[in-house]
Amino acid sequence: MKTRFLAAVTALCALNVAALAQAPMPRLERRGSVTHLLVDGKPWLCLGGELLNNAASTAENVRPVWPVLANMHLNTVLVGVGWGWTEPEPGRYDFSALDGVLRDARSNHLRVVLLWFGSWKNGTSSYPPAWVKRNWQKYPIARDREGKGREILSPLSDVNRDADGEAYTALMRHVREVDSGTRTVIMVQLENEVGLLGDSRDRSKEANAAFAAPVPRELMDYLQRHKSTLLPETRTLWEGAGARTSGTWLEVFGSGPAADEAFMAWHYARYMNRIAELGKKEYPLPVLANAWIVQPQDKKPGDYPSGGPQAHNHDFWRAGAPQIDVLAPDIYLPNFAEIATLYSRNGNPLFIPETRADAANVFYAVGQLNAQMFSPFGIERQAASDSPLARAYDVLTQLAPLILDHQGTGTMKAVVVQSGAEPEKVQLGDYVFDFAVGRGWRAAQPAAGRGYAILIQTGPDEFWVAGADLSIRFASTVPAAPMASLASVEEGRFENGAWIVQRHLAGDDTGMGGDDRASLRLTADPRILRFSLYGYR
Ligand code: DGJ
Q1: Average pLDDT rounded to a whole number, residues 313-329
Q2: Which residue from 11, 277, 299, 350 could staple onto 371, CB 3.0 to 4.6 Å apart?
Q3: Bigger pLDDT: 27 or 440?
């Protein structure tokens, strides 16, 4: 009896393992104009947060954070893995911190994006192991004009690249071995905010020789093949120097620091492409590279990391690093939408691995800009289940399937309206929606100084809206019935994908308690409304 029971348990376990082993690999898939990240075979909206740099250097240190993040309605956590702490001696790997992280993430139903802090982190080389840093004769560093060494591994060195590549390969092998069943790890960020700080290019002997040599054929061919779709920045640079099809870096890209930057971008891209390629051979997770973006006070490359995946360098990165799937901005500046738009050109999918915890921005990013990832930095510092971000994530978790379905279809819009600004007008189908802050009966000014919303059309007269601190009025574009109003309104929640109506709204709750025009009110607490409209005259 006991034996039969054991045999049955063993068979069940085997079945389970087989089922788990078949969980599809996370991957990117382009649908029309939008690229989704597929997790378990379905589009995944990364409502994320990035841990402080060294939080996960031991599992113990980060253990208390997981349940807090899950309570904030995050579904993805971005976790740093340092080369130094995973390869303390050449060829000896220690993945115990990572194993603990994955165990705790799983038990809190969170997915993980690994950030490989290998050769570079914020331009400098603080994360390579001590045995690499100390042996700078073997692992060459970048040098200034006087030949003085910088604390930055040279991207022109194959020795550096191969050492980093071996460690990264070991990491990907380990992830494959321990995570193929559950696919907790869904993506990797390779390095962090790379590029040369303090100068426009590496001036080591090797770098000087490469800079004086002809621009590699692969890059020249890429520029010619993609001539008609190059970014305006690339075109200006290349055409400004005569659109030559061969020559040295100075001949092809002119004598300014932009030529230095193109040179660095190419070499960072090649270096990282090789590492990404090696890692994908072990375990083909999608890979992103993040950018320290150009700041308003920056005057020249080197003030920001020269040659990183900044928006104006994307053609060099595309040419040099086809294995890197996403070039991503870290956005801390206030012109969030403008920067995000620069990183969405030429089909680059919008993933934002670092930003501020701003509820309005996450709504705008996923609803208007087709972002697939939003991830405030230092998320454990924001940890409160009733913070504006947590409440926004709660609503977006419920709406994620609808949002992902409507991205890139022209049936979804998002708005952010500042206090005191003119109302924002948006058209969907036959209706015009007018979003304003602090308007109408019993209206209050939002504490955050702005309101935000996502609007989705699901039928000719059927809509969903979610957001906070806005009043919405309607008009129709149909000449025979130019006025528009609310036919019905439901307030509710999605639970396990099913819409649960909590209240039917009219009267006071649709502005008609003290106003003669119907309107929808999104209060300070973000909420979801389903409504239908009708036109009249
Ligand atoms: C941007 C970096 O990418 C992060 O790792 C971190 O260093 C933050 N800056 C600090 O604000």
Answers
A1: 98
A2: 350
A3: 27
Does residue 260 line the site of ligand 1, with CB under 6 A?
no
Number of other residues whose CB lies within 10 A of the CB of residue 330? 20
Mean pLDDT (whole number) for 118-125:
98
The rounded percent of the chain whose pLDDT value lies above 90 is: 91
Of the candidates 409, 488, 502, 421, the one whose C-alpha atom is nearest the C-alpha of residue 456 is 409
Pocket probe for ligand 1: among 79, 377, 379, 382, the residue whose CB has the most ligand atoms within 8 Å is 377
pLDDT tier at 296 (50, 70, 90 boundaries)? very high
**Residue 154 to residues 77, 139, 146, 150, 532, Cα–Cα distance (Å):** 30, 8, 16, 9, 60
> Dihedral (C-alpha) 408, 526, 522, 480: value to the nearest 10 degrees?
20
Distance 116 CA to ligand 1 centre (A): 14
Ligand 1 contacts CB of residue 355 (under 6 A): no
Alpha carbon distance 370, 34 (integer Å) = 7
The residue among 274, 62, 61 whose CA lies nearest residue 155 is: 274
User: What tokens does 472 get?
Assistant: 């919405």
> What crossing angle do the helices spanning 205-212 and 257-282 adopt, rounded to 10°?
110
| pTM of the complete model | 0.94
Neighbour tally for 181: CB within 10 Å: 14
Instruction: State residue 255's pLDDT score.
Output: 92
Compute the distance from residue 265 Cα to the ligand 1 centre, in Å. 20
193 lines ligand 1 (CB under 6 A): yes
Expressed in angstroms and rounded, the spacing between residue 122 Cα and the centre of ligand 1 is 7
Q: How far apart are CA 282 and CA 1, in angstroms?
A: 43
Contacts of 8 (CB under 8 A, 6+ apart): none
Mean pLDDT of 106-131: 98
Pocket test for ligand 1, best of 79, 121, 330 (most atoms within 8 A of CB): 330
CA distance 398 to 336: 24
Query: For the purposes of burial, counting CB atoms within 10 Å of the CB of 536, is it exposed (0-12), middle (13-18) or buried (19 or more)?
Result: exposed
pLDDT, residue 21, reads 52
Q: Is 199 in the pocket of ligand 1 (CB under 6 A)?
A: no
> Cα separations (Å) of 466 from 49, 97, 359, 395, 397?
22, 39, 12, 8, 12
Q: Which residues contact 408 (CB under 8 A, 6 or more apart)?
A: 31, 32, 33, 34, 370
Task: In whole angstroms, give the CA distance from residue 427 to residue 445.
Answer: 25
Q: pLDDT tens digit string along 283-294?
A: 999 999 999 999
| Helix 359-368 vs helix 388-406: crossing angle, to nearest 10 | 0
Q: Which helix (H) or strand (E) holds 162?
A: helix 158-179
Position 81, amino acid: V
